GTP diphosphokinase (Faecalibacterium hominis), 767 residues
Amino acid sequence: MPEGKKPAEDLYSAKTHLHQPVPEVSTVNATALPADAPEGALPSEVRPEIVTWEKLCQAIKASGKAYNMEMITKAYDLANKAHNGVCRRSGEPYICHPLAVARLVLDLGMDSESIAAALLHDVVEDTPTTLEDLTAAFGEEVALLVDGVTKLTKIQFSNIEELQAENLRKMLLAMSRDVRVMIIKLCDRLHNMRTGDAWPEQKRRDKARETMEVYAPIANRLGILNVKEELEDRSLHYLDPVGYEEISKMLSERAGEEFLARVSSVIELRLKESGIEGATIKRRVKSIYGIYRKTIMQNKSFDEIYDIYAVRVILDTLAECYSTLGLIHDMYHPLPNRFKDYISTPKPNGYQSLHTTVIGHEGIPFEVQIRTRKMDEQAEYGVAAHWKYKEGLDGHDKLDERLAWVSQLLENQRVSEDSGNLLHDLKSDLLPEEVFAFTPKGDVINLPTGATCIDFAYAIHSAVGNRMVGCKVNNRMVPIDHVVSTGEIIEVILGPADKGPSRDWLKIVRTSEAKSKIRNWFKKMRREENIQEGRDTLARELRREMIFIPDDELDEFIGSCCRRLRQNNAEELYAAIGYGGITIANCLPKLKEEWQKRKSEEGKNEQLAKVDLSKVHATDGVVVEGFDNTPIKFAKCCSPLPGDPIVGFITRGFGVSIHKQSCVNAISSMKDPTNAPRWVKAYWADSVKDSYKAGLEIVALDRNELLRDVLSALADIRVPIYTMNARQVENNCAVVSLTIGINNTEHLNRVVARLSKVKDVLKVTRS
């Protein structure tokens, strides 16, 4: 769409399925399509027009608002100088990206500080410019906005999940103080997704998945539906291009534009005849991703989706909304159970509207959305409406209420030190689907889809959840893990005052609020129990990882690692593990690093014992020269069997590890001067009677009863089976992975020969 050209009046999603040349105020769509985009093209199918400084100035002037052009010009000059000589992957100068983000921020109606911060949002991260430089040049407000968007690229994290969680935590914290941080970040991500074709394939998929799981739900929660829908569509375009194209093709084959135009004219005429003047009629086609979720993920046919086409009626008063609803139901046949009153019960993001689905005279179902102009502004711009339709931060109290969920999420994270919990809780709390249930007194409790009665109890109050022993749904007793549905009346049955929750509830509840309150109860009320539980669990996991630490030395070892795990001492770490505030999986990598560091330091001060290379007694069927009854373990990297030429490696503290002589790891280690002296001769005892584990992989044509025939063949030759896994692969084949008991290589060869004779088996290999 050319710069300066106004988008259609009836175009109110991020899609451009319908093009009606009716003047309207610019929206995010203004930069969605370039001037030469083909008619009917979708934003995901073409690259956006490059925004220049001159075009941004024209758009600012056309907005009619009094912007601080001195500040914005100064920000552009600094950004242009800082990014000078740098190009994006797609080839254009880097400054085009900050300019495009600033234009998106402008289209959302944001203030001068937001536009300046958008122009500067990458200078701290990518150039030598510091936050102190920005504070000195633009003041603290702009610097804080830039700092909130800047990622933590200069801090080293142990894994990508922790990095992602820390970035997100920082943005949420800044967002709780000033929501403009997240609005700028959403515009930044939107432009990156619009130009993502220049990314490598894997990066495109990773960014699309992150956008789908984190940023689109945040845009939805903030009520910026245009941005939310386009982020979802562009992510889908990268994640499932085939599904995207199928739905796009189905939409283009249907004459939705003509149908909606006819319906809109009929409704507009009927409203005038009924005395309702000044109504604005808009229309839209459902987003590609919205249709995808129902057709692909919910297995519905295209004709089973009743809200692909929608007409929106925008009125002046609330009374006119309900009057219009009656007129619509009089004109068209309403579908049962398809009416939703989001005016009396708004969505968590503040969205308000009446929704009803009716059948048109052509037999085509369509949705009618009825709302006031103020509600439409809120739905169009979400929290950004505070800047577009008010001056500055007027109405800030209401904005604080809208953003209370951010503070709640961050507060919950103070109880849990596990970085992985933030991503999980954010994804579960920001799901667009919500259910609404009622207390016996009629209070409305909104919860994410899939929430249980336990979540409901904790949503009322932590004391109610802690004392819960049962619940009634619509006056009928149900289990406490009953999944809540919209419209249910739920009564929580309370136990004694000292009743507490069960640890198992952490596996049942859906909301981060409930998990946080359960963990908090265990943290306060069961400290000694938590410490013992956490210590036992950690010691058990360390032994499983072959880290053997004497019990009287465990506390000292754990204490030395506590700072890396953000705990003050060993007791705090044990307690956090005990009540679920931190997971074992998050601790183990750092504990392993510390253990390896200690062992390497000990190794430098110790000389390996000289071994007398004489024949001694066999242990576990293996003779190791120079050792008598030493602990033996068989290396998992090569899984040696009797009959394989073998060699032994003297480990530090774990006995001797037995490898095949042809093992790649063994050959590599023998060439290392520091490890070479630790390799010793080993061979199988003459009379090996033990059974050894061996892995086999069977590739066969996929058919019914394949597994039965494989298992029957193994049973015939009396081979024990320890593990089995089967999966389908391409070309109508299946792969069966087995761990079986084998006496020696000769025995293994007989088993392979027997399995090769099973019908449709193509190949049997040792894994």
